[in-house]
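testing teh design pipeline on a random one, pls ignore if ur not involved
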């Protein structure tokens, strides 16, 4: 049986397409071949009977209109991209993982799609989402083991990259919907600072938290896409030297399971051995109250986002989504406003504690453990919660395997607005982790940096 895993370097594929060594039409055909071969088992993409014809025609138009000189071709020229199905794309219906009529959910094409197309990308299709990006899972399977969840809500986007169907995919995060699927699927997931990518044309979950992001096989791929996607990218902002890393000791970190914590301890040992200063910083002693504050705001905002649709089509919503909306109905404006004020204070306190401790990045497990073997759930978002609450940029790196062979992730979190510095630091940390794993002779099977484009992982 063909492996469901495949490493694809976005940087190498983009370079080949820009140079003319590869052709957008041929690249589009390979994408369709890969989707046809394995997506019946992974189910990362929303079914699209006319995908091949649409995508090949888009590739032909790009080739005909494209710049003749490689130096003039845009950064994502000919790159096929998966787009989460709460993001509007002209010509493709938006279903948001729901049973609501697509015409009800329609809207203008999202700004993030305009940016992708402006950079030369091709839209490979819509990727599966949990219903309305809440918690009711879609049909996607984890390419590492199809009996396990890929996480949510950006399940299809993470799985599509892990399975080598596309080298780049767009997702969203409200609490843990980018970082957790990245960890479960063994890819790099990047959630920028809140507001760094405009959410125009995206069906909201909770507007005070919703953040667009992207998946790629490695940090270099994310770094290629980020300047296209993010407002005001500042390449000169990436500084020099190794960042000081902070471990958020206390009740937050204790939410991870034993295996995740043991793996995290090993990861911190690797980073110290590579020359990084790692400091334990007691924070979030009131973590239970932080969780309550976030979900007060989240549920209130979910209910308001769905006020019209739920009133008309409430019987078509899945149980998990309907429960979240109904919970939001019970939260009054005064309670929401009090929670919003508490969040602002939390943001300020967290930033002050990082500054006082002299740390540049927080590090933690990306998820509470490996992907659960239960397709009726998407896993727990708790390890992402405080960082999403504060609107901070975060990134998940593949960082070894659990005892059952599934991937584990290391989460890196930077200061608000410091997305450029986070990606620069992540590249070095990625190298240190890979070096430690390679030096130990560990066959992680999560990623194969340096593999040929499209080369398959062994499924170990």
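output:
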């Amino acid at each position: 049986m063909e492996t469901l895993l495949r490493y694809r370097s976005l940087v190498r594929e983009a370079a080949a397409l820009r140079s003319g060594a590869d052709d957008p039409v041929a690249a589009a055909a390979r994408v369709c071949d890969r989707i046809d071969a394995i997506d019946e088992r992974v189910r990362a993409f929303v079914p699209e009977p006319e995908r091949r014809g649409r995508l090949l025609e888009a590739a032909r138009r790009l080739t005909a209109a494209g710049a003749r000189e490689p130096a003039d071709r845009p950064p994502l020229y000919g790159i096929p991209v998966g787009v989460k199905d709460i993001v509007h794309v002209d010509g493709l219906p938006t279903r948001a993982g729901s049973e609501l009529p697509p015409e009800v959910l329609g809207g203008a094409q999202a700004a993030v799609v305009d940016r992708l197309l402006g950079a030369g990308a091709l839209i490979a299709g819509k990727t599966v989402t949990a219903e309305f990006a809440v918690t009711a899972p879609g049909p996607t399977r984890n390419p590492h083991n199809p009996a396990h969840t890929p996480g949510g809500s950006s399940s299809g986007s993470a799985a599509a990259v892990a399975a080598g169907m596309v080298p780049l995919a767009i997702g969203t995060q409200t609490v843990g919907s980018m970082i957790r699927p990245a960890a479960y699927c063994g890819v790099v997931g990047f959630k920028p600072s809140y507001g760094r990518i405009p959410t125009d044309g995206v069906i909201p979950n909770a507007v005070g938290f919703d953040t667009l992001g992207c998946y790629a096989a490695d940090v270099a791929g994310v770094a290629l896409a980020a300047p296209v996607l993010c407002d005001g990218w500042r390449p000169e902002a990436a500084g020099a030297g190794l960042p000081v890393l902070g471990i958020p000791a206390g009740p937050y970190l204790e939410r991870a399971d034993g295996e995740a914590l043991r793996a995290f301890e090993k990861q911190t040992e690797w980073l110290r051995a590579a020359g990084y200063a790692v400091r334990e910083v007691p924070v979030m002693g009131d973590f239970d109250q932080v969780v309550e504050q976030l979900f007060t705001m989240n549920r209130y905002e979910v209910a308001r986002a769905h006020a019209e649709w739920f009133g008309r089509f409430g019987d078509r919503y899945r149980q998990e989504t309907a429960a979240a909306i109904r919970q939001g109905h019970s939260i009054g404006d005064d309670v929401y406003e009090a929670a919003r004020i508490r969040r602002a204070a939390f943001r300020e306190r967290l930033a002050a504690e990082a500054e006082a401790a002299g740390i540049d990045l927080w590090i933690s497990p990306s998820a509470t453990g490996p992907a659960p073997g239960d397709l009726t759930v998407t896993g727990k978002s708790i390890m992402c919660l405080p960082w999403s609450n504060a609107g901070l940029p975060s990134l998940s790196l593949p960082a070894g395997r659990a005892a059952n062979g599934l991937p584990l992730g290391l989460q890196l979190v930077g200061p608000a607005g410091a997305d450029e510095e986070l990606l620069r630091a992540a590249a070095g940390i990625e190298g240190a982790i890979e070096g430690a794993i390679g030096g130990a002779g560990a066959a992680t099977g999560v990623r194969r940096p340096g593999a040929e484009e499209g080369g398959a992982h062994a499924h170990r």
